[in-house]
């Protein structure tokens, strides 16, 4: 039995509807899937129903863009309550910032003689949590770029003419936000960020897990994060980060997390809920980890790993 715990739908920058995603998961024989749309949990209600029909276990989640000491990282919040008022209020703010970022990107494109309109991007996105892939699709559909890659290469990649930095919540606040909503905070694709040095601070702020298996992790990167997760007593997760058909072939099911890790994640969630009060936002200041944990962490991180 296998799971894919990192998936996006039309509620952010994926192309599949919840129903299509659940159907794909059923065809692939997945036992469990999680929805991790950027800055939203709106798709979770439909996904719950679709998975029920497909006979698949569903884990509600989201993916937040965060920052610690100038490093960008993505935090997955598993089992968050999709009705949690504080989470919903914060995410509504993130979504507003995303929408303004689209307007800014379009203004920059206009300055570069690309007469794209923000409304065209919003129409294509048709969701509250739009991002660069939607601008890329609008550029292709408007005939300004031949394909999505060209849109990113010419305009949207970091330091290209239409690139606008993204708002990032502090990682410590993001972890607290996820916890108060009843969720577990997991660092997404750590191998992409290559900022292992921040992991001890994240752990002392309450990080619950590491996404050890990811499409863009090499075998050695996965092994490295598995060792790290075991040493630091963190949950182990994995997923394909499927965005549907927007990036060539759909990735769902290409990363197969053994179901035993889902069991462990669920028991970690049950333990958390029994010891920590929900709905209270407590941002933990970073306290150094105990010496032996730091020693074990250092022993692992000095080993070189190649992506
Ligand atoms: P945003 O959240 O608006 O910054 O957009 C991030 C999304 O854009 C993620 O889903 C990325 O996978 C996607 N993305 C980033 N860089 C590229 C690229 N060079 N080509 C295609 N997609 C990209
Ligand atoms: Zn995305
Ligand atoms: Fe991510
Ligand atoms: Fe993602």
Please describe what this structure looks like:
- The structure is a single chain.
- With 307 residues, this protein is an alpha/beta fold.
- The chain folds into two domains: 2-82 and 170-301, TIM Barrel, CATH 3.20.20.140; 91-156, DNA polymerase, domain 1, CATH 1.10.150.
- Helices cover 45% and strands 15% of the residues.
- It has helices spanning 18-28, 44-54, 85-111, 118-125, 132-141, 148-156, 171-180, 190-193, 199-204, 219-231, 259-275, 291-301; strands at residues 2-4, 32-35, 57-68, 71-78, 169-170, 184-187, 209-214, 235-239, 257-258.
- The longest helix has 27 residues, at 85-111.
- It is globular.
- The model has no long low-confidence stretch (mean pLDDT 93).
- The structure holds adenosine monophosphate, zinc ion and fe (iii) ion (FE) (2 copies).
- The site of one fe (iii) ion has 5 residues, from loops.
Radius of gyration: 19 Å
**What compounds sit in this structure?**
adenosine monophosphate, zinc ion, fe (iii) ion
Averaged pLDDT: 93
Using the 3D structure, state the CATH architecture of the largest domain: Alpha-Beta Barrel
CATH class of the largest domain: Alpha Beta
Largest sheet: 9 strands, mixed
- Fourth-level CATH superfamily of the largest domain: Metal-dependent hydrolases
Coarse morphology:
globular
Give the proportion of residues in helices: 40-55%
Strand content of the residues, in percent?
5-15%
Low-confidence stretches: none
- Taken in chain order, the helices and strands follow as EHEHEEHHHHEHEHHEHEEHH
**N/C terminus separation:** 27 Å
The tally of domains stands at 2
Number of helices: 12
Q: Give the strand tally.
A: 9
CATH fold category name of the largest domain: TIM Barrel
């Amino acid at each position: 039995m296998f799971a894919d715990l990192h998936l996006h739908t039309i509620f952010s920058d994926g192309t599949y509807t919840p129903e299509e995603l659940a159907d794909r998961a059923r065809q692939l024989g997945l036992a469990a899937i999680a929805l991790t749309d950027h800055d939203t949990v709106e798709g979770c209600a439909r996904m719950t129903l679709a998975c029920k029909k497909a006979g698949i276990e569903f884990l509600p989640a989201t993916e937040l863009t965060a920052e610690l000491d100038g490093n960008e990282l993505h935090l997955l919040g598993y089992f968050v309550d999709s009705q949690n008022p504080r989470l919903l209020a914060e995410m509504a703010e993130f979504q507003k910032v995303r929408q303004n970022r689209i307007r800014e990107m379009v203004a920059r494109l206009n300055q570069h003689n690309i007469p794209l309109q923000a409304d065209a991007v919003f129409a294509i996105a048709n969701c509250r949590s739009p991002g660069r892939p939607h601008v890329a699709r609008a550029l292709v559909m408007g005939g300004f770029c031949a394909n999505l890659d060209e849109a990113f290469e010419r305009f949207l990649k970091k330091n290209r003419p239409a690139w606008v930095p993204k708002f990032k919540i502090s990682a410590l606040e993001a972890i607290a936000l996820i916890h108060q909503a009843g969720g577990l905070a997991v660092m997404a694709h750590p191998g992409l960020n290559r900022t292992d040095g921040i992991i001890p601070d994240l752990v002392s702020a309450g990080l619950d897990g590491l996404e050890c298996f990811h499409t863009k992790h090499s075998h050695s990167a996965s092994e490295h994060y598995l060792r790290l997760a075991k040493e630091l007593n963190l949950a182990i997760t994995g997923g394909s980060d499927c965005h549907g058909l927007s990036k060539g072939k759909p990735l769902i099911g290409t990363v197969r997390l053994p179901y035993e890790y889902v069991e462990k994640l669920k028991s970690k969630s049950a333990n958390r809920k029994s010891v920590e009060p929900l709905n209270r936002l407590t941002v933990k200041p970073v306290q150094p980890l105990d010496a032996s944990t730091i020693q074990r962490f250092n022993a692992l991180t000095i080993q070189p790993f190649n992506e």
